[in-house]
Write a sequence for this structure.
């Protein structure tokens, strides 16, 4: 039985978020420059987006560049920005053809103007895609996002558009960059570290977490299937008892 056959296609996670870690170590082990690890990582983004779409995943959020990544050596930051442009240029026609819609979350105003322009163009060109939404987190951190939402809500209260007591978790979530997306069902982190690294802290509240030591450039369809199979073996209780969950499933 292949790994794909072990997946219950009726219970595929609707939204998968991935922390793509290990590009640098993958390159170092091969005596390559770190940028070559990122370059290979981009090819894996292409493959995994299509594999996820084939399995029925509707949203894929990838942590491509964190707020903290701005502190990397300038040469690496430049290489990553150039890679985003290269990736967008290379992938846009295929995305349109395959129904892949691009969205972006993060403080993109910090990115070079030409990168912003190309991202915006790709978002517009792929807006009709309905097979899967590829959501890139760029210049993103959850603390930035939550602080930003709090500032926005404070402004609305100050302007009399909102009362403080009206702020509940639905209203708060609607001011986050992910307002148009369902929360991730599954978070995958490659590269062996066991942490969340300031990624989607609000949205991951009830996500299942899956960590693998595999480096992102080595991640493939089998790895994705393995993560989904593991996800499907878990019972999502959302704070309820196991009995309550089982009864609801039968109802
Ligand atoms: C983490 O590995 C990876 C990144 C910081 C960048 C990932 C970006 C891409 C794969 C390109 C995305 C672009 C598009 C257009 C989708 P690391 O450098 O932290 O690895 P290490 O922990 O081994 O040093």
């Amino acid at each position: 039985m292949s790994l794909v056959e072990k997946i219950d296609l009726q219970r595929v996670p609707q939204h998968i978020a991935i922390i793509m870690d290990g590009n640098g170590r993958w390159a170092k082990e091969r005596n390559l420059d770190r940028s070559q690890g990122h370059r290979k990582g981009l090819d894996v983004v292409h493959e995994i987006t299509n594999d996820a779409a084939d399995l029925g995943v509707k949203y894929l959020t990838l942590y491509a560049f964190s707020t903290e990544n701005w502190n990397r050596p300038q040469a690496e930051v430049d290489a990553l920005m150039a890679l985003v442009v290269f990736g967008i240029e290379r992938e846009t026609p295929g995305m349109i053809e395959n129904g892949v819609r691009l969205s972006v979350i993060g403080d993109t105003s910090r990115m070079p103007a030409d990168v912003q322009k190309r991202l915006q163009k790709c978002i517009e060109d792929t807006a009709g895609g309905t097979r899967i939404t590829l959501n890139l987190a760029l210049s993103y951190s959850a603390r930035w996002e939550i602080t930003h939402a709090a500032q926005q809500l404070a402004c609305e209260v100050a302007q009399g558009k909102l009362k403080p007591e009206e702020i509940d978790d639905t209203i708060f979530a609607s001011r986050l960059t992910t307002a148009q997306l369902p929360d991730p069902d599954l978070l995958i982190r490659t590269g062996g570290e066991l942490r969340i690294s300031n990624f989607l802290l609000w949205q991951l509240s009830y996500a299942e977490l899956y960590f693998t030591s595999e480096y992102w450039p080595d991640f493939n369809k089998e790895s994705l299937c393995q993560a989904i199979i593991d996800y499907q073996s878990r019972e999502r209780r959302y704070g309820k008892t196991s009995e309550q969950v089982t009864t609801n499933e039968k109802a």
Notes: Residues 11-141+183-250 form a domain with the Undecaprenyl pyrophosphate synthetase fold (CATH 3.40.1180.10). The chain has one domain: 11-141+183-250. The beta strands are 15-19, 59-66, 100-105, 132-140, 186-189, 208-211. DSSP finds eight helices and six strands in the chain.
